[in-house]
Each structure stands twice: as structure tokens, then as C-alpha cells.
Amino acid sequence: MKVEFFRHNIDESDIATAVEVLQSIFLTTGPMTSRFEKKFADYMEIEEAVGTNSCTGALHLALLRHGIGTGDEVITTPMTFVATATAILQAGAKPVFADVCPKSGLLLPEAAEAAITEKTKAILPVHLYGRMVDMRGFARLAQKHHLILIEDSAHCIEGVRDGVRPGQLSNAACFSFYATKNMTCGEGGALVCRNAEEANWYHWDMEMMGWKYNMDDIQAALLINQINRLNENRGKRERLEQLYRDLLQGIDGLDFVEAPGNDERSAHHLLTVLLPGKCSRDEVMHQLQEQGIGCAVNYRAVHTLTYFKKTFGYKPEDYPVADDIGNRTISLPIYPALLEKEVEHVSTTLKRSLALGSLF
Ligand SMILES: *Cc1c(COP(=O)(O)O)cnc(C)c1O
Fold this sequence. Notes:
seven-stranded mixed β-sheet, 13% strand, Aspartate Aminotransferase, domain 2, 39% helix, 12 strands, alpha/beta, Aspartate Aminotransferase, domain 1
């Protein structure tokens, strides 16, 4: 049995909408992008949304919009996709890491506060695997220290925590519609914010150097109907995660990241497990892949990547929690079209591979 790491859910209605665009006058940013932006803003319960061609571009723009550049420090998490940190570098600023919570892998406001220096201009927390960070806490922190707050919400379109959605308490939240995200058009992104004036800047003015990050109408066409299916698909992933948790419980040394609280809605974007410290994650991954099971690493801690080690002199032990998660984590298939029997197969195969773990 082959189980792909991800299968998108682009359907006939999405394809028909894209064909409509191809038969119309506008191919690039036009009426379909506007319709998408309006509908996405409504879904996010926020005033403004702007389509972009990636989340990386959206993060870069959001940082520039708030004047972040050379000499500034931006506090973020080392447990994220590298683009969170490279967007900060692209803006000319320095990413400063704060270690994550061992249970959830999330950046906590207390940890971010301890990393604040006189050069800190912004905080860029990441909603990891679908769970939101404590945005009420981050908003209080940003207000107290007069800092810009930008969310990397690539994993979290559908999330709610303490009654707050991404973008509602910050200066901007950035989303990705990359190939493996909950909603996708291959490559794409968006940025949401509370203030129409801010959003217009992203479109029309040139107050400083600009970058070409616009979404086109073909991307918007592929995305616009997927918004209708977000909640149902989220429910499917939630049930699949529960099944994985049931099937993989009680294995010595194998940990799940903390499940979302009762007052919280996770986007359930990725299903990550932390393998027992004594076994080789790469070897287990290799075995799963050899047996036709797609899996991934989300993520090796950013500060342990060669560029960051070389440029900033980081050592793995500088952020030990993120380093440990990065060495043990493995992401298993989770998407709406995944069948229960496939989850059972993946779980059995993983267990078998762990039973052999003493061999490597
Ligand atoms: C996917 C992802 C990004 C980058 O998104 P792109 O649209 O590929 O630029 C950034 N941050 C996180 C956490 C991601 O998962």
C-alpha cells in the first residue's frame, strides 16, 4: 500500500473556475483576485486581505510596511520553516530566536520577552502545525514594549484561540497556499490586516523599494471555492489526528506534541510525532519511505542550519528544546482524502520500524 505524504483537494469546480479565467481577459491580478481577497477576508473575520504569490513574500512586505530593516532585530522561533527567518533577513533585519515550549513547540510570550533588546523592533510568532500561539499574550507584550507584531500563519487558516483568529490582534498575519498547505494553488499566499489603509499600501503606493509579489487571477480561481471546504476538511483532519493518537499511544519514548485545549480550534495542518531519542529519525524515515509512506521533517531547528550557524555562530544547544524537537520530529500523512485504513497502515509500519529501532 502506497500512502502519499499529501494529496491536494482541487476539484472540478476549482478547475472550472480556473478555465473561466483562462477564457477571460484578465490572467494576472484582476477581478478574480479581488473576489478571492474579499471572500478570504470574510472567512478570516477581518477587514482586509491581499493576495500574494507566497507567504515568504507576504512576510517580507509586512516587515517592510512597518519600517523594519537594517540594524533592527526581529524575535521569532527556531521551530519553523526557514522562510520565517529568511523573510526577516530579506528585510535587512536580524532574526533573533527564543526557544520554544517543550510540550507544544510554540513560542511563548515570556520567552520572547526575555529576548528583547534595545534593537528589537518586531515579534514574529508562528502558529505551529495548526495550533495558534497565545496571541492575547503577544499583543500585550507588543503593546508594552511598542513592538510590531506579525504572524506567520502558514499553518493556521482555520485556527481560533481565546476567541481570536489570526490577524485580529496583530499588525498583519501571513498565509501560504503552497502545494502542501490546507488550501493550495501550487504557489500562493495572502496577508490579512485590520486596517484598509494599510492594505492599500500593499497594492498601490511606492514609498520605498517594492517587490513583485502579486497573486494572479488563475491562482485566485483555484483558491476561491476551496474556502467553502475549509471547515469540513479541518474536521476530517481532526478526526484523523485523533485516530493516529489512539493507534500510536503507549509506545515507549514516542511523544505527540500537546493536543489543542478545549477552548481552542486547531487547523490540524500537520501530524508530527517525536520519535524516541535513542532511535535514528532519519533511519525510521528512510524505512517508511522505502515502504511507500510519504513523510517529512517539520522542522530541523532553524538555528542549526548551516547558513545560520555560519552567519550568526549559533550552536545547537543555544536553543535546546527546538534542537531536540528538530532531531526527533517526523510528520506523517494527514489530509482530508486520507483513509482510516491508510492511517492504520502508517501506524503499524511506524511501530514495526520502531521495534527494530535497537538495530540502528
Ligand atoms: C510554508 C511555510 C512558509 C512559506 O510559505 P511560502 O508560501 O512557500 O512562501 C512560511 N512559514 C511556514 C511556517 C510555512 O509552513
